[in-house]
Amino acid sequence: MTLAGKVAVITGGTSGIGLATAEALSARGVKLVLHGRRREVLEQHAARLPDCAVLAGDVTDHDTPNRLIALAMERFGRMDIAYANAGLIHAAPVESIDLDALSEMIRVNVDAAFRFAYTTAKHFKAAGSGHLLMTGSVFGTKVRPNAGGYAATKYAVEALCEALRMELAGSGVRVSVVEPGLVRTDLHRDHAVRPEVVQNIPQPLLPEDVARAVVFAVEQPAHVLVPRIMVLPSVQPV
To answer: Per CATH, which fold does 7-231 belong to?
Structure first.
C-alpha cells in the first residue's frame, strides 16, 4: 500500500525509535505530526523534514492526544497513523528501586499511552479507517529480574492492543504492537553501565531497525494486519 500523502502522529518523536520512524515514513511521502518534550529539537526536525508539524509538551498531560489530533486535522486535514511510542524505563533491585521514578514510568508507559490509544482509536473508528501502533517490548512477553515494573507496563500495552484489535476488527481500524529487544537509544542515557554491556549484547538494535518493522506493518494492504511484530538483536537470547 502506498503511504504517500498519509498523515502520521508520533509521540516520543525527538529521538530514537520515534524519530527513526518519522524519517522512514517521511521518505515515503508521509506527512508528520511529532510530539516530544524538547521543543528546540522538534523544531530542528520540522525544519528538515517536509510537511512536519510539531507539538512540544508533556505526554502525560490529559489533553495531549486531542491536541495532536487537532493539529493533524488543522495542518493536513486527516490522520491515518497514530504511533504511541513515548516511553520511559526504570529498573532496579528491590533495595534500590526509586518508587517516584517507577510511578513516573507507569504514568508515561501506561496512563499516557492508553489515553493516546483510546483517543486516536475513537477518531479512527468514526472515520472508518486508521492504523494505531504502540511500542511494546520483548519484555511485554516475558520478564527478567529487577525489571518487573517495566515489564508490567509493556504487558499492559500488549493486553490493550490485543483487546482493541478484537474490538475494532471489521471497523477499518488496524491495531499493531511493535516489540523491540534491546535498542541503542537515549532511553538508557543515564545508565552508569550501558545495557548492552550488562546483558552481553555487543550489537543492540538501532532505532532504524525498529522503524523498518513499523513501516512494514503500515505498508500492508488494508485487508492485511500485522498485529504484533518482534524485532531482536540476533544475539539476544531472551
So the answer is: Rossmann fold (3.40.50)
3-class DSSP assignment, residue 174: strand
In the predicted structure, residue 20 carries a pLDDT above the cut 90: yes
Instruction: Tell me the pLDDT tens digit for each residue of 149-195.
Output: 999 999 999 999 999 999 999 999 999 999 999 998 776 555 555 56
Question: Would you call 231 helix, strand, or coil by DSSP?
Answer: strand
Q: Strands, DSSP E only, in 85-126?
A: none
- Residues sharing a CB contact under 8 Å with residue 115, sequence separation 6 or more, in sequence order: 62, 64, 65
- The grid coordinates listed for 66 are 486531542
Residue-wise pLDDT for 116-139, tens only, equals 999 999 999 999 999 999 999 999
With a CB cutoff of 8 Å and minimum separation 6, the contacts of 61 are none
CA dist 222 and 172 (Å) reads 8
Three-state DSSP class for residue 11 = strand
The residue whose grid cell reads 538483536 is 233
Q: DSSP per residue over 127-159, as a string?
A: HT-EEEEEE--GGGT---TT-HHHHHHHHHHHH
Active site residues per annotation: 150
Question: Which residue is listed with cell 544475539?
Answer: 235
Matching residue, cell 542515557: 189
Q: Rounded to an integer, what distance in angstroms lies between the CA atom of residue 226 and that of residue 53?
A: 28
- pTM for the model stands at 0.94
